[in-house]
Amino acid sequence: MSTCFSRRYFITASALAGYSLFIDARHLLSEETTAPPHLHSFFNDIREHSQGQSSESNMSLVELNYDVLVAGGGMSGVCAALAAARGGAKVLLVQDRSRLGGNASSEIKMHIVGADSHGSRPGWREGGIIEELRLKDAEYNPTWNFELWDLLLYDTCISEPNLDLLLDSTLYAADVRDNLINTVMVRCDKTEHLYKVNAHIYVDCTGDSRLALEAGAEFRMGRESKSEFGESLAQSQADSRTQGSSILFTAREMDHPIPYKAPSWARKITESHLKHRGVGQWAYGYWWIELGGMYDTIRDNERLRFELLSVVLGTWDYIKNSGDHPDSANWALESVGMVPGKRESRRIMGDHMMTQADLEGEWKQIKDGIAIGGWNMDDHPPEGFDAPQQKPFHSVPVPEPYNISFRSLYSRNIKNMMMAGRNVSASHVAFSSMRVMATCAALGQAAGTAAAHCVTEKIVPAELANDEQRVHRLQQRLLRDDQSIRWVQNKDAEDLARKASVKASGQLMGASPSHVIDGWVRDEPGTWNHRWAAPITDNGAWIELQWAEPRSIRYIQITFDSGFQRELTLSAHPGVQKRGIRGAQPEVVKDYTLTARTQNGEELMLATVNDNYLRLCRHEFDPVQARTIRLHIHATCGAEEARVYEIRCYG
């Protein structure tokens, strides 16, 4: 099986290059559907076990058993659930809304950014699951449609055999004994179910730390003082204030004038409100329409929704009707978010708290790095839009991308609870860099992978963290899944490619064939230190691994170049769209074959791939006794040369 091209998608490549989805209710999950088999089992289990007695007479109680429960379906939760499921754990993902993606969903429409700092640090886009999802979106969502992104996330999750999904379901209670979560309670009022969920590991990806709150995990909210961690960017005095929430809008230019009349409750916005807040483009709202840091971003959410909507509509009224922007005459509002995109609330205390010092260099002493960050330390005034005399952000670049400690991903007092996303263990200053969604997604992948390890070895996260060999195995597994970790090299003893010699049809200057087994899978822009690259002639280009004695091989993994120097994110902002490419990234290898040659010279075809667009491709087949493995590249998605970062082989 080759996962780079055989996974089933809702997405269909058609003339419209969009989703084609039709559901006939008469055949929903009947034998005529192609729904993943585990969905039948999951839905039947709920139906068959939904007659239990509950404390609420009109709700049915269902008891569910899993290895890992992930609470929260934002980007960290999606990546955590996928990683745990792919690691062999039986996973339940619980999301309190009907859409996955959190701030990146169609409900909010915030584009995903991360360690490459919006393209200002080229070459540092995250790998792993978030890269897989971004590449899928670029390939199958040419019109930059957020609803199709929602569907992609849904499809990816329900297609994962070890992963079950509960939408519109809220975790509301936890039973904790001896500092271990025993069960959690989840409710879905739409289906009138109460779920009692038992698991070995519980992962809080709710952002607001709802699971931590119910379980009694230690957390903090607000800003630390300079003296607590010696942070120059911290406040002189600690306080309970946070960054605020935002509501975005989208607009579209029409071929005729579109009038606009604001509701009576919209704020009256003038040029003085926008002194530090430009309105140079109208297609994709303004992140700086931000409020809430002076309040409780959780419990004052309804108030904040109203206030933010009043600012959004007042700002649009100013653009359309003030006379200062006559070019807006043909522009019309297309969508206005109804869910505030939240930046900050509770942060859970782990065995390590990331601080400004870590981000500015002390990360180099962190031995248990499991993901990278790199966004600026980007703090916003708590007053947000209500402080027009202040700039809407204060941004201090980090010197370089940094590693994040695994010890920041589990609770220090609830033994079997982990966390990922914007609730990880970090000071407010460090959080201002770590909070962005690609970083949160990478943390989710790390947490999910670690959770699966804990299930397999029947341990809790602190036991993993305190064992150097287990940490090493976790890091090596993350690297195998294309997670980006600085200064950690592929040293997987099971990777047979590391013991091979390598030759190729040719190479660009400096792009040696041996780079595919050097253990590194990214390059600084303009360098060829860790990639093989060669011109593609009429006969293509090839690279070959050779062993002195035949090796039994049943699995090959290839990491292609996918253009890490380029920004790759779904956005309605015209400037961001210009910097990206919709469709397959040009550097990716499109068509290729894999062959093996045995001791007696027989050539065996292992895989033939056409129209690939992914960075990480995996191929599993019946074991072969191979003296050589050859990757023959016939075409790329646009680049003039073949490019490969890594080839791995396993018996």
Structure description:
The protein has 651 residues and is an alpha+beta fold. The chain is built from 13 helices and 27 strands. The chain folds into three domains: 377 residues, FAD/NAD(P)-binding domain (3-Layer(bba) Sandwich); 98 residues, no CATH class; 155 residues, Galactose-binding domain-like (Jelly Rolls, Sandwich). Strands 21, 22, 23, 24, 25, 26 and 27 form a seven-stranded antiparallel beta sheet that branches. Strands 4-3-2-8-20 form a five-stranded parallel beta sheet. Strands 1-7-6-5 form a four-stranded mixed beta sheet. Helix 2 runs parallel beside helix 10. The radius of gyration is 25 Å and the shape is globular.
Residue windows where pLDDT falls under 50 for at least 5 positions: 5-29
Mean pLDDT: 93
Molecular shape = globular
CATH class of the largest domain: Alpha Beta
Largest sheet: 7 strands, antiparallel
Over the alpha carbons, how many angstroms does the gyration radius reach?
Answer: 25 Å
Quickly give the structural class. alpha+beta
Which architecture name of the largest domain does CATH use? 3-Layer(bba) Sandwich
Properties at a glance:
single chain, 651 residues, alpha+beta, FAD/NAD(P)-binding domain, Jelly Rolls, 3 domains, five-stranded parallel sheet, 13 helices, 27 strands, globular
Tell me briefly what this model is.
Helix content is 21%, strand content 24%. With 651 residues, it is of the alpha+beta class. It has helices at 37-48, 75-86, 129-140, 146-158, 210-215, 226-229, 301-321, 356-359, 428-434, 437-457, 461-465, 468-480, 574-579; strands at residues 60-65, 68-71, 91-94, 163-166, 170-177, 180-188, 193-198, 201-204, 219-220, 245-246, 249-253, 290-291, 331-336, 341-342, 347-348, 369-373, 377-379, 394-396, 402-405, 417-419, 501-504, 532-535, 541-560, 589-597, 603-609, 616-636, 641-650.
